[in-house]
Design goal:
By secondary structure, the chain is α/β, with parallel strands linked by helices. The protein has 15 helices and 24 strands. The strands form 6 sheets. Strands 2-1-10-9-11-12-13-14 form an 8-stranded mixed beta sheet. A 4-stranded parallel beta sheet has the order 4-3-5-6, sandwiched between helices. The longest helix is centred in the N-terminal third of the chain and has 17 residues. The model has no long low-confidence stretch (mean pLDDT about 95). Bound molecules: malonyl-coenzyme A and adenosine monophosphate (AMP). Malonyl-coenzyme A binds next to helix 8 and strand 13.
Length: about 500
């Protein structure tokens, strides 16, 4: 067996022996075989290399979810390039930071956002380093596809080390400055192998794939489980509960954020009749309410399997496939992962006590891109990563996430960092200062609420929202704005966000 650690080479080993086997079927009836995925990704890999991309170079991708986007991801792995996906909701100023920081060699975007990307590139020093700016539209067409189609359908996976970077994903961070999270081929492979085994994936599985692929959940959990087991997918460009109800009878596994499940429950046509073929529903990326867990059981007879992960670590813990899945817990640490709960001094706490959750394992990222100090801050001396989550562990090792020490809101499974929004609002005329807090929301779990302290002529709530909408991705825009004379602060001068949540939540 070759020692090449390239994740694509590992995927390929798990391809069904008959490459004509279906890899995925799209919502509009297109069937894609493993052979097509293999050949199309080879063409793109040849194209990227011909454009001058070399091993380790970043390929920044801001496009809608499509089959061709998946091929592009596979092509980057194959060629030893670093796949750097961006949420399509990001606005110009956000893009400028990512492009400037990642310094890609190739950028791929939707034709509609070409002008925005060109502008963002011209505003960064990274601009001149970009060899090619290509388009890939939601329908799979664009200059990338045109160019790729003239290339050979053969491409030998580039030799890489397990520690070489396969993907770069950003987390906005509590300071408002996004950090690039480097994920290696080994991080992704080992976590995928663990999940395939823990969740019992086989070639007979068919995953309902409705998650975006610019994040860990859809890309490294969903896609990897399928490609590491020779399984197949029903591939939708986004989530819709009615489409899920229609697709579930043909599927065996579904993965989603809690909003996907609450929306399914609110659909009157969802019930056990559409789940006869299903064996597993997985939830993660945000806390699943016990109420949703129980209502789901009652409605369709299935017990949602909740797991816990992060971009920095992939999946850390999971409720068991066989055995008790406990509501309100994220299950024990996955095989090979160590999860411990410590106090602020780093001492491991007794069973049942709440503290800081730290993890270690082959799934944990090597560090932040070009930020060695930040990396050092987030790792302990004995090599554990500080997740920033507050947790307890029971006598059976089941972990419960009970809060966060990081100032972060999870809205519909997407992370919103208050600092980033506060900086944008504080820049407005008439605003002295602001604080953004998460308040509970029936659909998204949590949403951002902005509290402003007016200076002179205070902007209206609508104006604050319009300002945020112009500068920030839509999911970060506060859903509500309140005004207060002064922010409550503790003796250290720190804003007491809990008091704001109590008052306005
Ligand atoms: C959309 N909107 C949101 C939002 N998504 N607001 C807050 N939070 C969100 N997540 C807003 C839009 O701005 C818009 O507002 C309105 O809601 C409708 O937008 P939409 O695009 O039509 O929404 P919809 O398609 O229904 O999308 C909602 C969603 C989607 C929940 C289906 O956000 C989603 O797929 N989320 C999953 C994200 C994910 O993959 N997370 C995993 C991260 S990985 P307006 O005002 O403009 O009308 C990770 C690690 C791990 O966390 O452990 O897995
Ligand atoms: P991200 O940075 O997008 O990868 O988000 C990671 C964060 O999502 C974690 O640090 C947790 O706060 C949260 N998270 C993920 N899965 C769960 C879960 N099952 N329950 C509670 N929080 C979760």
């Amino acid at each position: 067996m070759s020692s090449n650690a390239n994740l694509f080479a590992h995927f390929k080993r798990h391809f069904p022996s008959d490459h004509e086997t279906e890899l995925l079927a799209t919502a509009d009836g297109r069937s894609v075989s493993y052979r097509e995925a293999d050949e199309a990704s080879a063409r793109i890999a040849n194209c990227l290399v011909a454009l001058g991309a070399k091993s380790g170079d970043r390929v920044t991708v801001q496009v809608e979810k499509s089959v061709e986007n998946l091929f592009l991801y596979l092509a980057c792995l194959r060629a030893g390039l670093v796949y750097h996906p961006l949420n399509t909701a990001y606005k110009a100023s956000e893009l400028e930071y990512f492009l400037g920081n990642a310094e890609p060699t190739i950028v791929v975007c939707d034709a509609d956002s070409l002008a925005t990307i060109e502008l963002a590139l011209s505003a960064t020093e990274a601009g001149p380093g970009v060899n090619a700016l290509l388009t890939l539209n939601a329908d799979g067409n664009g200059t990338l596809t045109e160019k790729a189609n003239t290339n050979s359908a053969d491409f030998e996976a580039a030799e890489v080390l397990g520690s070489d970077m396969a993907a770069l994903l950003y987390s906005s961070g509590t300071t408002g400055q996004p950090k690039g999270i480097m994920l290696s081929h080994d991080n992704l492979r080992k976590n995928a192998e663990t999940l395939v085994s823990a969740w019992g994936f086989t070639a007979t599985d068919r995953l309902l794939h409705m998650l975006p692929i610019y994040h860990v959940h859809g890309l490294f959990v969903g896609v990897s489980c399928v490609l590491m087991s020779g399984a197949s997918m029903v591939w939708h460009s986004g989530y819709s509960d009615s489409a899920a109800v229609a697709a579930l009878p043909g599927c065996t596994v579904m993965m989603g954020v809690p909003t996907y499940y609450t929306r399914l429950l609110s659909n009157p046509n969802f019930g056990s009749a559409c789940c006869t073929n299903m064996r597993l529903f997985v939830s993660g990326s945000a806390p699943l309410l016990s109420e949703t867990f129980e209502d789901f059981q009652t409605r369709c007879g299935h017990t949602i399997l909740e797991r816990y992960g992060m971009t920095e670590t992939g999946m850390n813990t999971s409720n068991p496939l066989e055995g008790e899945r406990r509501a309100g817990t994220v299950g024990p640490a996955l095989p090979g992962v160590t999860a411990r709960v410590v106090d602020d001094a780093g001492e491991v706490l007794p069973v049942g006590e709440t503290g800081n959750l730290q993890v270690q394992g082959p799934n944990v990222f090597p560090g932040y891109w070009r930020m060695p100090e930040k990396t050092a801050e987030d790792f302990t001396e004995d090599g554990f990563f500080n997740t920033g989550d507050k947790a307890t562990k029971d006598a059976d090792g089941y972990v419960s996430i009970v809060g966060r020490s990081k100032d972060m809101i999870i809205s519909g499974g997407l992370n919103v960092y208050p600092k980033e929004i506060e900086l944008v609002i504080d820049d407005m005329a008439g605003v002295k200062e602001s604080a953004v807090v998460g308040v509970s929301h029936a659909d998204f779990g949590e949403v951002a609420l902005a509290v402003i302290v007016p200076d002179s002529e205070a902007p209206s709530g609508d104006e604050v929202i319009a300002h945020c909408r112009a500068l920030l991705a839509n999911f970060k825009v506060p859903k509500r704005v309140e005004t207060i004379d002064a922010l409550p602060r503790n003796a250290m001068g720190k804003v007491q966000k809990n008091l704001l949540r109590e008052r306005f939540g």
